[in-house]
Amino acid sequence: MEVMLDDIPVMYVLSQSGPEGAEQAFNVLESRFKSLRGRRFYGTFYEGEYRACVAIQPEDNPEGLGLEASTIPGGKYVREKLMNWTRRIPEIGKIFMEMGEEHSYDPDRPSIEYYRSQVELHLLLPVK
Question: Which strands form 75-83's sheet, in the order they lie side by side?
Fold first, then answer.
């Protein structure tokens, strides 16, 4: 399914070992907050770099939290929903590869994982 995304201002932690280090990067990111309630979390992969991200809220101070700030670029993406994703993590890369074979991939923007809930993950591939 095609979706249009707006730019998403985020704070992030860079994984030191690409997607394999995602869990560690998210642990560091989540440790910066007293509560995760109401927060929107994303993973981005671009040019070999994986970032664990959280959308910036008006009261946030990225520098004060010791986090880098950036923007996930909006535009057209194709989306696949992955249910029960915590048990299916090894499938994520394969699903992105299949999406890239079926659609006109845009290499100028990152692939995105949107953690909608503990059960539902949205995989978003940028397309032209």
Answer: 2-5, 75-83, 120-126, 111-115, 41-46, 49-55, 8-14, 68-72
